[in-house]
Amino acid sequence: MPFHDHMPAAPEVSHGGGLRASVAWAMLVLGVGLLFTAEMARREWLDARGRAQVMQQSLADAAQARVLVPLDTGAQALRAMQTVFLSNDRMDQQTFAEYQSNLRAQERVPGFVASAFARLGTQSAARAEYRYELVSPLHGNGMLVGLDIASQPQNLAALHRARDADMPSISAPFRLLQFPDADAAAARGMTVRLPVYSQGPRPVTPEQRRLREIGALAISLRLEPMLRQALQGRILEHMHVAITDLDAPPDQATVFASGVLPEGAAPQRRQVEFGGRRWELQLWPRSTVVETGGIWRVVAAGTIISMLLALLMLSQATTYRRALELGRRMSARFGESEARFRVLNELLPALVLLADGRDGRIVYANQAARNHLGAVLDTPLVSLFANPLLGGQAMAEATAGGSWASQEAMVVTAGGEAFWASASLAQVEVDGAPYLLMVATDTSEQRELTERLRYQAAHDGLTELCNRREFERRLQEALARRQGDADMAPFALLYIDLDQFKLINDVSGHMAGDQLLVQLVHALRAHLRPGDLLARLGGDEFGLLAFDIDEDQAQELAERMRQCIEGVMFVWQDRTYTVSASIGMVMVDRDGCTLKDLLAWADSACYQAKEGGRNRVCSYREDEDTTRRRSEMEWANRLRWALEQDRLLLDYQEVVPLLPSPENPVHIELLLRLREEDGTVFLPGAFIPAAERYGLMPLVDRWVIRTALANFTRLHACGGELRTCAINLSGASIEDDGLADFILDTIYEFGVPAAGICLEITETVAVRNLLRVVRVIERLRAVGCRIALDDFGAGMSSFGYLKNLPVDVIKIDGSFVRDLGSDPMSRAIVNAIAQIGQQRGLKVVAEWVDSERTLATLRELGVDYGQGFVLHRPERVLFQRPGGIRMPSAGLG
């Protein structure tokens, strides 16, 4: 039979002389290999020692930087408190404690013990007194009240240096009074101090600082926990650390020691300077032994390789002659057609089979085919197909003189196992005889990978539920089926949004939130009916499609889901959580609705459930309120897109002086616009209500602030001569704890003079949370920003609140200005506001000035500025006009 070898036995070959030569060569190779291995091991040892030294130097450098971190953090907390005193130097214990709580020094500064304020008292020729009068936290630190920190001359001198330079100073290590029973190391501490000046601008010269000094702030720190936390990790794992104060007496010089320090070894030395003192860091490696794992691996690998090479040389003695004989026989047979076929196909990775063209039995299978299929020689080729019809069709097409194109087919092995393969079949001729050649490639892994990728693209990785894309695809399919089948039963769409889920993430972390979601999904699955589709649409949002269901059944199912979620008790690290869900339900029982409609309706119903108090089910109902909410939702989405695509615009309107002035200063107010993709521009009245309802105003306000400050000199044609730019702040932004920091950081980043920024707050926002607003205003005014009270007069208690608000400008509500010529009451109110502004030294601005008659009346009443169409119509800011170039830093970043 063709394609079978019948090799004769090889003759005996004498190889005594060859063996001796091979042994000699083998020993030579072994010796050279061992010498090379020894050299490589020596180099590996040198490299390991070098790496250890580099690591020690790197850890020493890291320690030098990390020791400064808690000191810098403490100094920053003091600097923030110093700024508070600059805006309000009348501080009591309660207010001081509240500010300290907001600074979160206990969390941010390792080793924190207390913050304190010592007021400058009677100054005598000998020395001044600095007695602590405010301490936070007071519990455990009460013994500090009344303590005079100037009783130590060194501390007094350091405090005076800090006062004159307005820079933090630190003390030498000392025993903290708060820990009388602790050992010396645990009670050792230090203080970081910063001077405090009286209310007003920050003093800039030593003379001003001495005149304005009212006391000093201090943070006391325990050195052991502060430095151990700063150095924790690789530094303390690999190094012994000792820190000494070079400026302290020998008995007080020890700052920190990580344990028993080695003797005799030379340490790495680094120096840290902070607050007028110098600390020396000494670091010794915990182990001087070089890691030898790599060296032994080199020795072992080199020895084994050398021995293998030697054994290979020895093997030549017995195999050389046989290899020559085998080569001779292969050369003799290579001219035969069957051998040529074997040489070309034996090592191919594809499955190659040759079958007799007359009876269809397999006469040859290459190595890959034998490994995959087993013993298939002399079996019918058609038996390899799991589908006999497909196999018969392939044989018929190939036997007819053509070929069967490559197709996916299930192939069966000799052992009965099956796998997917891409196979093709063609008729060939070998030595004048007809054969059928089959070439196949195993595609099982590829198909499995494709299925896995398809599954991952359609499912959420955490919960294994369908994701939003797959859910919307299934919903679209259901809508298409319903349009094609009028008799199809209605189905329901449920939009499930967990209540207060963010609280769990904030308190216990995102890992806890993820585990809660997994537990909830496991519980919800138990309440699903066959055919229902549950999907995770977002972070804490789920969707449910319930088919073949009427409205009562859908309401019952939604209620079961709500109760299921409410009943889950989630325990995480000694905390127990319960959650609830707001569920919006839409019945799909009519034609003509689209995917977008259904998702918007479900979202609207869910929003109604949240507005109704959360933890409830609401069905979608078409009414005026729902229509308005849908419109707001659409505007909210359009606004988000506009923010992402940078389609918000700024116009400016000039605020014009009404009274004669030798100067012509330019004042403007920025007005927000939204440009749609088609170029249509909308005024804020169209989208601001949606932004306020859906919490987008802080994002919008920050965009306006950053964009305006990044392009401050390119807002108006006057460029850098612009005197004031007014920016409106929403109520949501005012309630944002990070607003003041954002504004101050942005002013500093772009170098804009703070006096050129006027921030407008509406009267209703100001009186809604007076204490919070006052704190924000005071921080901003302390650096020079101006504050305007907008829409003044619209509230019921304007005059009563005015005396409590530290503002610079009053903007009279336009409704009074518009009726100024026809309504005596409006004239009386405007007159009263103008007089109050003059008495308090505030500038008064009238809005909505739209006629010369109104303008004349305002001048007669002594109003300072006017704003309206008769004075100036809004224009686009310069950098957004055609041809203008937007600065790249103007984005949110």
UniProtKB/TrEMBL annotation:
<dbReference type="Pfam" id="PF03924">
    <property type="entry name" value="CHASE"/>
</dbReference>
<feature type="transmembrane region" description="Helical">
    <location>
        <begin position="23"/>
        <end position="41"/>
    </location>
</feature>
<keyword id="KW-0472">Membrane</keyword>
<feature type="domain" description="GGDEF">
    <location>
        <begin position="489"/>
        <end position="622"/>
    </location>
</feature>
<dbReference type="InterPro" id="IPR052155">
    <property type="entry name" value="Biofilm_reg_signaling"/>
</dbReference>
<dbReference type="InterPro" id="IPR035965">
    <property type="entry name" value="PAS-like_dom_sf"/>
</dbReference>
<dbReference type="InterPro" id="IPR000160">
    <property type="entry name" value="GGDEF_dom"/>
</dbReference>
<dbReference type="InterPro" id="IPR035919">
    <property type="entry name" value="EAL_sf"/>
</dbReference>
<keyword id="KW-0812">Transmembrane</keyword>
<dbReference type="Pfam" id="PF00990">
    <property type="entry name" value="GGDEF"/>
</dbReference>
<feature type="domain" description="EAL">
    <location>
        <begin position="632"/>
        <end position="888"/>
    </location>
</feature>
<dbReference type="InterPro" id="IPR000014">
    <property type="entry name" value="PAS"/>
</dbReference>
<dbReference type="InterPro" id="IPR029787">
    <property type="entry name" value="Nucleotide_cyclase"/>
</dbReference>
<dbReference type="InterPro" id="IPR001633">
    <property type="entry name" value="EAL_dom"/>
</dbReference>
<protein>
    <submittedName>
        <fullName>Bifunctional diguanylate cyclase/phosphodiesterase</fullName>
    </submittedName>
</protein>
<keyword id="KW-1133">Transmembrane helix</keyword>
<dbReference type="InterPro" id="IPR042240">
    <property type="entry name" value="CHASE_sf"/>
</dbReference>
<dbReference type="InterPro" id="IPR043128">
    <property type="entry name" value="Rev_trsase/Diguanyl_cyclase"/>
</dbReference>
<feature type="domain" description="CHASE">
    <location>
        <begin position="134"/>
        <end position="232"/>
    </location>
</feature>
<dbReference type="InterPro" id="IPR006189">
    <property type="entry name" value="CHASE_dom"/>
</dbReference>
<dbReference type="Pfam" id="PF00563">
    <property type="entry name" value="EAL"/>
</dbReference>
<feature type="transmembrane region" description="Helical">
    <location>
        <begin position="294"/>
        <end position="314"/>
    </location>
</feature>
<dbReference type="Pfam" id="PF13188">
    <property type="entry name" value="PAS_8"/>
</dbReference>
